[in-house]
Queue: 4 jobs
Job 1
Amino acid sequence: MRVFLLSHILLPLFASCAAQAQTSFEYKGIYSPTNAEDEVRARYATNHVDYDWDLWGHNLKKVVESNPDNAVYATVADTLCKAQFCFSSPQLFSIVENYILDQYGEGTSTYSARLLIMPQDNKLACTCPDCRKLGNSEHNATPAVTQMLCRLAKRFPRHQFFTSSYHSTSIPPETKLPDNVGVFISAIDLPLRVDFSQTKGYRKFVGTVEAWKKVCNKLYVWDYERNYEDYLTPFPCLRAMQSRIKLYRDLGIKGIFLNGSGDEYSAFDDMQTVVLAQMLSNPDIDVDAKVREYFENAYPTTAQLISDYYLALENRTVSTNHVLPLYATMEELVESYLNADEFIEWRKQLDKASKGTAKPERTRLNYLLTALSYTQLQLMQLQGSTDEDEMDDMIEILRGHSELKGMEYYSESYGKIDDYIKKTSNKTAK
């Protein structure tokens, strides 16, 4: 699903806050609705996986599905397992080789395909005799995966191949990889907090990076910047992300992929994408100044009201150093940074102030206030509120999501806003 979200009203803003510093990373990927716009990526020199990867993520299965053959699947506990691949399989190599030839050819001096070849999203590893001979074990698929990557890299020297350091491929290979092979190192175990320097996750992550450096020249990081259980509630991640991006720069990481909300609207995505894009060019930017600059341009009437509230959330993540959970319930958000009474009062003030705004600010606020009505409903339910009139008002505002592009789901797991409205309406009717 491609969403052209607010581009006609956002693009005039970017000229005033375009990144000027020399880029710190060769790859600057942000998977967000705002970064899906051609003009945004051009202005900030950012990347988007839908446009600059020829094979991405766990999509190897789509290549294989059109060529069904049990020989491409893993053996797990002496049993055929179609949930994972056998990377020593000649049939699998042949399918991928033919796919590359058919789709991208041999490559040229000016054209190179970019392909991410990684196992399915689980911890299973093939332990067939051939994979075991290469070095695979029950939880380590690195030997077979990197053997296949090296064969592909040699077969197609003008194309770029990547794998992942994640689950069954977290252990680096023992031999150096070709120059046209890189790795995405998952940052999932690095706590999303402003100061993570004393955590086990930090030590583990740095150790993983240093280990891969010995065998690979092109290290990228796959990172996460959203609450994937709730896209619609404000998620003040910028200070925490800045700490991480500075770390990646200092470790010599060459590229970053920030996994956001994809095509789905998330609260403050417009501002956060622009600030993160600038951060990827210059990790030392003044976050507060960039946030205020964006809001002053995009929301001129309500800029101070929004900036003060949003930055208060960011400052709270600094003062408390709470972890920002990537799959958080509303209870966890309240424990971390979200004060229910403060939020409800602020949303009320913002709604009142929005009445005096003109387009395009009013359009942006319509998106934001619709999303925030979901947050207020969640908070009122958490508080055990009996104010049915207020809840009915929030439900009615939230119903307006159907008129807004890119606002169908509230979570990564395809939680539909319409289903939430139906469930919440039934509760308030009892």
Note: The CA atoms of residues 11 and 161 lie 34 Å apart.
Job 2
Amino acid sequence: MAPLAGLKVIELAHIMAGPVCGRMLADLGADVIKVERIPGGDASRGFVPPDIGGESAAFMMLNRNKRGIAVDLKSDGGREVVRRLARRADVLIENYRAGTLERLGLGYERLRGENPGLILCEISGFGRTGPYADIGGFDLIAQGYSGLMSVTGEGPGRPPVKCGPPLTDITAGILGAVGVLAAYVHRQATGEGQRVDTSLFEAGITQTYWQSAITLATGVSPGPLGSAHPLSAPYQAFETRDGWVNVGASSEETWKRLIEVLGRAELRRDARFRTNAARMGHLSELVALLAPEFKKRSTHDWVEALERAGVPAGPVLTIGEMLDHPQTAARAMRTRVPHAKLGAVETLGFPIHLRATPAEVRRGAPMLGEHTREVLAEFGYQTGEIEELVKAGAVLALI
């Protein structure tokens, strides 16, 4: 049995951070019911190209393992559907702007009046308190506010660079899932639900542990270092004859092994590089000496030689190379999932391996309104009532 089997989650969320939270819980066995808007559904359905058979690849990646219903929240019937779902749910996830659910009559105080054990997970741009509570959430903006873009890039004087993946969206979704699990443990002991409040802003800040430690200790904000580490050297990517190799010589022992492999053992006697602190203080000089050596051999040769010597090393893979890597297959991080329209669709696996209660990728992302009739019937709606809601446009039912 999956660890969260029996947990009923209503996902009233769109695009990314909220759906990431829902996906994490769904992969762990929760019954996640995704509530999409009418018309159009989740905006990520329109994130094409790429598509697979007309279905957004982005939407399918984020929304597997969920059942989906489509509801017009501007209609009385649609809002009543959500209230009825919330009465029997354990968790409700939302990532709307502050006050949106309250204006729709779906605020937490009203919902918990009918379900005191309800856990509300709110994922927003800057959190539900503070002077920025009303500002919407976008990964690019959060990466700027959180300081991430000030330390990402090639080096001083270069333009700021956004981390390639939407780091704050994904991290906020994971933080939301952690908060839900903590609130669920509390509810198991007390019967009380609570609000779980996290944000893209805080998700970005969470990624700055090393840089914030430096700033808090010195009062000086570090800048970008390319692939280099802010506290250890040499710990970065070096260009090889045919690509790039990451080298993690982060201790005195691995530093000595590295320069032996490079044939530069004399650097042990160079005062500029005798300690990690000295190497950090002369990083540009160190890189200038090491970089030409790495260009003499291929990435594969360097990885083999360095690993044999006990120096952490690895190639810089493309996403395609990563997906085809044997370790990706061994960890089941590339898998297939059934989809109602497309058959088997490839997706990513679940990154936490629980031996006794493993997660399971069991169903593809829902078509818009695919499970509306099924879910409403489970929550007490009679066939005639469902058809009236469909006829009135309060809900959309694919099947």
Note: The chain has two domains: 8-207+326-396, 235-239+244-315.
Job 3
Amino acid sequence: MMHSNAITGFTTVGQALDRTIRACLVVAMLAVSACALTRPAAPPIQQAWATPQLQSLADLSVAALRARSYGSELQYLQAFAGTEQAAGSALLASYQSDGLRLYTRLDLPAAPPPDGGYPVVIYVHGWVGKADAPGWDFARQAGSYSAMAIHTYRAAGFAVLTPGLRGHGRVAGVAADGLEFLDAWDNGSYLSPMFYTIDVLNLLDSIDSLNTERWQRLAGTPADQPLVNLSRLHLAGHSQGGDAVLTALAVAGEGSQLRHEIASASITAGCFAHRFTQLETYGPMGSTLQAFMAGDGRWTGSAVGRDGRVNPNFVFPYPSDWIQSVDPSSPEWTWQKEVWSVATVRDAVDTKLKEMYAAINRQVNDINDASYRIDTLPDGRLKVRHDQRIESAMDRIGGFAAERFITEPLNLHYSDRDYYSLPTWNESLAKRIQQAGGRAYPYAYRGTNHSIKASKYAWFSPPGTQDGQALLIERDVELFMESESR
């Protein structure tokens, strides 16, 4: 969630392509104009989605997202040879998401498509942030987990679509549309994943365009052979991408307006709790020692200090694993003084609430005077009193409380010490989905971090901790294939 990317160069079809990829694309080169970045005609847009300004917070509710339509058409842009490619071909395409021109990477397996076409995985990346989003790099995905996932899915025979989402990335110098949405909603409001959900669903209902004659020529597929199998579509998401995937599952559940059904899905370290819960977790954990120190001001892995004193505003035992030490008196505690400079959890929560309420008052037409209050309970814990209009709307936003719609098989991968995706969130969600008749499979990877890897610091990962990335992707491939055979 916290990683960003440096830009690496894209190559056009005629520049430095592997001979095998170039041979596969030569017919397409003749058919596709060199001006492939010309904006295609946009489909009709519902006015509520054309700009970051919302008429109401209810516009982002699961009910509202389920009631609307989606879809576009994938337009071929160019090909490139990504540095992590082992086989197959990788292409860049564009599509429309409510009038915004967005980009996606498409990785095709080396083997020809089977009868019925390749099964598909849409892989949704995690948080990048407004500052780094324009430089989102489709040729080299952020972090080893993303690269491993794309490579493994493709090696197993899946076509993999990796959308950049609104405001993310550029192709041939042309930036994706939608950076204004990040200006309005990124991070502080905890609502940006709902807009990314819309982008994912518009891509999902555009996949049938890959079976047109143009794409068949591009991939070297016979005219009577579909490129992708529309009954074998899967979603996978990491971190904030998991939040978008979870909401997409709720929107695409039984009775939705989508034309294409999701066969199964996977979420890794997904940030998907209630919006207020996210705020009260991420804000303090990222800015104040009080969030993870015991009552005696030391780190013990719990709220209870060595002298028995209890921190009533303790949030979670483990901050991010890139901290060399959790002892503020140690020589390693240097730059961390600035990062964890907020005095109390109350101050941290207040700062994030100011951001959230400012964004809502500014960007939502039917709310412009909302306010909140933070009370201290007799036991020292905090209680936020929200504006009822915001509280009521937030209860209906996101897939975390929409388990009745999540009927397709779902893997939930998480660490026992990752505050971005608390174990209790994953366990609660899996239990509620199962009780509602769905199929959710929670997998805990002990001692790992937000990327499901062992930390190099012993205070975080105990000796013997194993990286879990390869195992979790193996479990995903197994789930995807199993769901297709039902």
Note: The domain at 19-274 is CATH 3.40.50 (Rossmann fold).
Job 4
Amino acid sequence: MKKSLIALAALAAAGVASAQTATAQNPGASAVTIFGVVDMSVTRLSTDSINGVNGGSQTIMDGSGRNASSRLGFRGVEDLGGGLGAAFWLEAGINVDNGTGSNTTQNNTSWGQSVQFGQTSTPYAPTSTLGARQGLTFNRASTVSLLGRGFGEVRLGRDYTTTFWNYTLFDPFGTVGVGAATNVIAGQLAPLGLAAFPPGQAYPLTRTSNAISWLSPNYGGFRAQLQYALSEQPSVCVAPGSTVNTNTCLGADGDGKVFGTRLSYANGPISAAFGYAKTKYGNNVVTTATATTISSLANTAAYRGDLTVWNLAGSYDFGVARVMAQYGRQTNDAVAAVAATATQAAGAAVGERELTHWTLATAVPMGPWTLKASYNAAKRSDQQVAGVVNENGAKNTQIALGAQYDLSKRTALYGTYSRNTLKAGSTTAGGLRATLGLAGGVLAAGQSATATGIDLGVRHSF
């Protein structure tokens, strides 16, 4: 979950004007910009020992970006005349420490982005990693747009979801590094787990592939966005991994279909936004995927039940400090298989899983310095259904402190410290671990553990 350039949000408003300026002496020409970020840190992680399992510590060099996501991008606009313009945006995540590219997602189904390269078996089995064999992918953004003064922007391709914008724009750490709000918002308590079914991200909490988006013009600070992402599954599909009439099903009919909207206001010191997104998944309780372990969380079944996400965020810039807050909820209407008991037959039961989260944060500029602080909290509230495991009552909190020193407009030094505490509920599915990227022991019901992290790095943009 990486932060994109904020300018992406303003592309519709500024794209045509930029094209006209760049092509004033050569009408119809295309203005293309190469841009990027190179961010490298030394990161120290540690976790508590739980039930005799020593979480230990780890020191790593991270080149994916702990202050701003490392990336290489190409963007361009063309003046089509008559107030119309065309634009494209291609942005690839890179890992500077080892030179690899970042994984992406083929679609938003529970299996579609998880197919190993060269795999021919049926059903396809999710894999934990592609081992950098995927090369450079434009996982961060891959869009083409039509721009107009009257209608705004129609954008096609892979892009942020309507709800993720609030996570990243109202987080002083930009949803990267040990201080990121998404360590809590999209962490182990997220209803569909922690980035399960790699590569990329199986459910579109950050980005969605195959999206059709409309972004309105800026009306005195007000903007609106609508987004619809295609499922791409044949209508005959009933479960992931099945083959119908030689069609390979990466999900049931409609799996991975996304609808989202966002309303925002930004004018002077005030910013506020509301985001909503719903992703459709099937409710098949029989088909299971090959067991996959990601961040030490075992995921043995395809996603089931619709996922609904909404959030509300706001900020006020006092000049001496910008204060931010956000509140949101993620709900998964999960269906789980229930074994037969003395009083009930085997079958299926609905067990709604819900995560409520909130954030308070600030960023304080002091000359070349920017001081940052945030507090994030989340709690699971799961429906209690006999025979269905859940994480009801589990809590996750994180305190983060950071400082950034600008050596120039393009280069900065930074440091961040965070303390993330995870407490299991009265019942637990057995997979919760304190983690900021380093797994500790599995928590039993009612237990808690803490993970701490430190980032020290340098970031250069071009």
Note: The mean pLDDT is 81.
